Write the structure tokens for this entry.
Amino acid sequence: MQTTTSNSAKAPKPIKTYLNGVMQSEERICEKHGKYMAHYFVHDGERKPASPCPQCEEEREQERQKLFAEECKAKEKNMALRRIENALGEIELPQRYRGRFFDSFKPYGDNIRANILQIARTYVEKYDTLSAKGIGIVFCGACGTGKTHLAAALLQELAQRGKVRGLYTTTRTMTDKFRGSWGQKEEGKTESEVLGAYQSVPLLVLDEVAHDGCTPMEKELVSKIIYARYDARLPTIFITNLPTEFLAAAIGTPELDRIKETCKFVNFKINSMRSNAVEF
């Protein structure tokens, strides 16, 4: 902001003397804020630039701080996005479900869907308390009802908040990886280490539990996972197409008993959201 020297101002007087120079002051006028007292330094007869309007300086500083805060916020957002991307790689979430958060799970006016969504949101909000007790969830329901979508949203919400490094897998994928570990001696790829990863990860999402065509090996591995995570008080999100009343026959009564003690059952009693509307 341009400033001028006041015509009515008296001759400047020294306010402080320095070696070979003197600090002086004079009244000036800021076009925006009016009169203010400017200070300048005279050294060996040479006058140095006078101090600017203090209110203008304060406004400029506030603007600088605002821009700095915006830059910091943008950097934090980018860091959060990088954390999510890193976490998504670690949790092995399928590409189809990456970027699906709670906001993309639409209730469409359905009270059951709205209630299911709220349960998932509450689990994330109370995760610290619930996970300390090993409390998880069982998503039960027919195909296409949004079970995996919601589990993926839950994992990503927790990853975004930096709460936990979770892991997503299906019973088929887990079994294939276990088979692939047979005879392996490389560190991190042995049978015990592969199985141990599923047993000890802080949060596990296990999809396709007791699916049609489930093999004896899958059933055995699921049993080992259930027992190990129950004993360690680690939370698990189970996803199954089977109704609750058929789970005991599919995975075993002792296994289901442990799940009932540590999980909230959420029944997706809704129609499939998938449709055959492909055109090209």
